[in-house]
Amino acid sequence: MLIRCLLVEKEGQGSGDHQVTAVIQTQNLSKWYGNVLGLNDVTLEIEAGITGILGPNGAGKSTFLKLITGQIKSNIGSVTIDGQRVWNNFSLFSKIGFCPEQDSFFEEMTGWQFLTSLLRLYHFSTAEIEEKADKALEIVELTEDKHRAVRSYSRGMRQRLKVAQSIAHDPAIIILDEPLNGLDPLGRRKIIRLIKEYKGEGRTIVVSSHVLPEIEAMTNQIILIHQGKIFAQGDIHYIRDLIETHPHIISIKCSDPRQLAQKFIQHDFVLKVNFDQKKGSLLVETNNRDKFFGLLPVLFVENRIEVEEITSPDDNLQAVFDYLIGK
Amino acid sequence: MTIKERGYTHWDGELRDGRFPWWPITRMGIKLTFKRRFFKLFFGLTLMPALVWLVGIYISERLEDFKFMMEGETDFLNVNPLYFKTYFTNEFLLFMVVMIMVFSGAGLISDDLRHNALQLYFARPLKKRDYLTGKAAVIFFFLLILTLVPGVVFILFKMIFAGNFQFFVSYPWLILSVVAYSLLLTTFFAFYTLLMSSVGKNRRYVSILIFGVYFFSDIFSAIFREIFRSQYFFLLSIKTNLQQIGAVLFRQRTPFNIPWFYSLLVIVAICLFAAYLLKRKVRGVEIIK
Amino acid sequence: MNPTDTGKFAFFIKSTKDVFSFFFTLTKKSRRTKIFFILSFLPVFMAFVVKFSQIFQLSRDIEGIYIFNNMVIAFYLQFLILILALFYGSSVTSEELEGKTLTYLTTRPVSKSSIIVGKYLAYSVIIVFMVTLGVLFSFLILNLSELRDLSLYRALFRDVAVLALGLMCYTAFFMFIGTILKKSIMFGLIFSFGWENVIQYFPGSTQKFTIVHYLKSLLPSVSRGRFSFLLFRLEPSSTATSIFMLFLIAAVFVVLACVLFTHKEYILKD
Amino acid sequence: MSVEIKDIHFSYGKIKALNGIDIRLPQGAIGLLGPNGAGKSTLLRILLGFLVPDSGEGSVLGYDIRNQQSVIRRYVGYMPEDDCFIPGMDAVSFTSYMGELSGMPRQEAMKRAHEVLFYVGLEESRYRFLEEYSAGMRQRLKLAQSIVHDPKLIFLDEPTSGLDPQGRKEILELIMDISSKKDIQVLISSHILPDIEQTCSYVVILNKGELAAEGRISELKQVQYSLYELKIKGEEQAFMDRLKSIDSQLEQTEDKIWKVYLPPGTDPQELFKIAVEEKVQVRHFVKSQTSLEDLFAKVVGVD
Asked: Mean pLDDT per 10-residue run, chain D (303 residues)?
């Protein structure tokens, strides 16, 4: 199967430089809720740097993150962080920061109280707590609103506060569950920038999202998860490259689609040509995108075709999954 | 050949002003309450007194057969208005009424507050009044089963067991008493429970309040009464106020030596206060300052 | 890093202290606490009314300490501490699940036991403080004219101690219930006002299965007079046994709650 | 004229949420755009009568927003922003319940509930309890309940929040399908530009409680300078250097799309010529008609 190949190849590649020790390791991790499948047989290693966990809603991302932060017990398999088991191993959490998905707080607190109270649980001195809380608030740009009740915060502020509580104690491992959910473009950009900057000094950051560009904006290392299974792990370009050879539809809007279509038909890497009457565009299916896109500009220039648009309608996450599942 | 249109289809019906726009809320409220675990069992338990009283009515018609068990004490088996009054004001029944309120009433508004569901209701052509009526009717349903229904059943069965209308002729007003008292008790608890339920988003907290405030008033009144030796402190207790009015409605001597309309005044005042607060608390959006 | 047992213990104490201060500061100012504070202060208000009317000769003259012992304590013992313990005890775990804030606690370097113990202590202290303050004020107001009689203070001390013990016990018990049951309130109400109320009057050893039995054993027996509706048919255990049993009950349930909370998995639904 | 409001002011205590809004909305799908906290939700709530404006007046579907709220609500569907549901119910009961509350007969409501659940794609899970629904399913359910009574006007508050791209695409397609019906109008509030751009013909931009811009999207998107969005494969640097040499401005977004501002008068064919010469592949090419985003950024002040 294709997926297996992908993983095997990846291992083959990685075996050369195996001195990089994994921070988070899971072995045959499986989880059910009653009879509903949460996660199915996940064995993987996460190394330092930013790793993106990508998958549609309900794919098992949250379950995975909850398992590696010891909030729930696995039915089968084990999780270790730095070689130590996670479930009920609280001392591990001094170096872990977690940003939960749910939008819940101790609503009666102010942002400042929220951070300082949680920092207290790390056994810092009061001076340290205040310094760290101030720093975290500054990073997420909430300093001005720190004395307002969390209840009155907007969605973006709440999201940023959640991120703040996960980084306030300066952890080596940061795990963020859907930190970009419900944010406007400005707020999203702020958090992406924050996460990227925070990577520094060999921190391990795990971020989950259901939006491919969001993850791409942060990291190249991704884990694709779907229906409770890991479909692929590795460099995002590697996965993209793999998709290259897969039949793929490209939509072109231009001045003379029929002439262009004629030209395409002569090439064997073009499998199908279609016209979308409604949108007035040309749909071309190819199994070799490199060749196709190499040819395209040449055709445009040679035939003086005015191009309005080139898009790939199925160049999204779902297409990746559909392909990996083998649809 | 007609081909079904793809995509969004219209609904070719007429939206209308129902005469009871609150009725769906009530039906759903009752359905959801019965779905709660142990509720059926518990509700069955609260019907126990009614069953016992019913058996009493049967025995009252067969006194001869049961004489050997009674050892001459048959007064309490005399089915008369006092018999009814005892049922309607007995402590166990009132305790169970409060427990039923905790079970079925606590979540009526607080759950909607918790899950932001009020805006779903108020985005529809519902008035505040309809919403509250719908929720209150859930309480009416359960409490009338505990009060009105047994009352009517007692009267009917008394006549059936006796085989004549003697009982009805002797106390033609009794049915009115039953209706009046049932409605009063139910109305009061509806207001009381809805008020408590709108106080918080947390069902546990609301449950404690429903239970706590009721019993608190009782204990408080008992303490004051002892100190001041004044019957007027019975007015502090929700329970004794209800018992007081109950006695009057069944044309019995009031258990406490204070004018009954004071009690009525207290009960009405609580209801009005609750209505006022509910009107302010229940709205489509929560306003956070 | 291989902490010794004493090190572990010291760490546990430290974590518990931190959790304690977390919830102490959070809860002492919350709206619910304010409402319960008002509730527990109503006897003070009552004491005011009584004292006022005595001064102006509006009611019979009853000794302050008499009212205090019989009414105030009865109110606190049979009603208020149950309500408080039930709400705060079951809140220890339930509110974290309902509010989905459990995550913030379990992803910190504090053990689950210390979360339970710390929160238990924080809530206990708050409600003990609430009750003590109410009792103290009622006492002072009711005994305004006899404040020089030192023997009264012994009674006050004893009553406060009994109420505090009761709160500790009940809170521990309801906390344990809260960790296993979702519908802890229903159970709690039936336990408090059903079981505790009825079983305590059963003869022989039966009544020893209630917590209130040991609490009442610590209070002086009340003459079967006008107040018999509040306390009767008690066959008291000895003071030492009672105190021992109360501590034992509290400790057992706290430990059980810790064990359960540590090993049970809580899934937060969204 | 579906929605018409004049000089609406509203404040939550001291915080001013709306500060003198004047809008007259034409037929068609309308987007209400603005960053988080711009007053979009407040405006919708005023239109529905949840909130009474401090001053100003308005009408929805010709009914006055102050006096005829219940008529308005009969013909309007509302999909709220927050997560909201009633626990203990399955989707069919919930949706038909909502239909009944709008005044549909019970049997009809049940029939229609099945229909709309099919329509929004929840047919397989319509008997499941709402507590078990995922965020995406809840979103669909909220849409279903907003159209169950076949309203004339639908208010959608952040319809795509919390959805994955597939789910988002599907919801947007549903919205477009609904608004393609002549006799049903849609008002979508969102902070996500592409959503509005894709679904609406008319847009109202709010910022800090004030009207920042308003108009047909096609008019607002006038070509001021030629902006193209490109995705490139190959020697990016060399390609970009060449582009710079012909005086175009470049900018890369967070999701690795290049924004190329060509100087006025330049033929976009140039781009492909350079691409051919530099042997790079153009994987994605969209003429961005100084898109809404720029307008948005300009009026809202996103950096």
From this structure: 86 83 88 83 88 89 88 91 86 93 91 92 88 85 93 91 80 90 88 82 87 81 67 81 79 71 75 82 73 64 48
C27: in domain:
yes
* Residues of chain D contacting residue B8, judged by C-beta atoms under 8 Å apart: 119, 147, 174, 177-178, 180-181, 184
- Residue D172: closest CA among D143, D149, D212: D143
What are the tokens at D271? 């781009």
Helix A317-325 with D165-179: angle, nearest 10 deg: 120
Q: How far is CA B67 from CA B54, B60, B70, B72, in A?
A: 18, 10, 5, 7
User: pLDDT grade, residue C224 (50/70/90)?
Assistant: very low
What tokens appear for B138 in the block? Answer: 């859930």
How many domains does one find in chain C? Answer: 1
Every domain of chain B and the residues it spans = 23-67+76-281
Output the six-digit token pair for A68. Answer: 């590696």
Partners of D163 on chain A (C-beta within 8 Å) are 57, 210
Predicted TM-score of the model (pTM): 0.82
The CATH code belonging to domain A245-325 is: 3.30.70
Sign of the CA dihedral A150, A154, A158, A161?
A: negative
Average pLDDT over residues B17-33: 90
Contact call for D163 and A304, based on CB within 8 A: no
CA atoms within 13 A on the CB side of B55: 6
Other beta carbons less than 10 A from residue D149's beta carbon: 26
The backbone region for D47, taken as left when phi is positive above 0, alpha when psi lies in -120 to 50, beta otherwise, is alpha
- CB contacts of C22 in chain A (<8 Å) are 117-118, 120-121
C267–A72 CB contact, under 8 Å? yes
Contact (CB, 8 A) for D33 and D190: yes
D145 contacts B285? CB cut-off 8 A = no
What is the CATH class of A2-242?
alpha beta
Token pair 């039966």 in the structure block, residue: C206
Give the domain D3-218 fold.
Answer: Rossmann fold (3.40.50)
Q: DSSP secondary structure string, D49-111?
A: TSS--SEEEEEETTEETTT-HHHHHHHEEEE-SS----TT-BHHHHHHHHHHHTT--HHHHHH
Cα separation, A56 vs A181, in Å, equals 13
CA distance D189 to D161: 11
List of chain B residues whose C-beta atoms are within 8 Å of the C-beta of residue D130: none
Q: Domain coordinates of chain A in residue numbers?
A: 2-242, 245-325
Show the DSSP H helices in B229-287 as ranges.
Answer: 238-249, 260-281
CA of B186, closest CA in chain C: separation in Å?
22
Are the Cβ atoms of A192 and D254 closer than 8 angstroms? yes
* CA C199/CA C179 separation, integer angstroms: 25
Among the listed residues D285, D269, D268, D280, the one whose alpha carbon sits nearest the alpha carbon of residue D240: D280
CATH 3.30.70 given to domain D226-300: yes
Task: Please name the residue of chain C whose CA is at the shortest distance from the CA of residue A121.
Answer: C18
Q: How many helices (H) and strands (E) does chain C have?
A: 12, 0
Note whether C100 contacts A: Cβ–Cβ < 8 A.
yes
The kind and range of the H/E element at D204 are: strand D202-207
Give the tens place of pLDDT for each residue, A16-54. 444 457 889 999 999 988 888 889 999 999 988 899 998
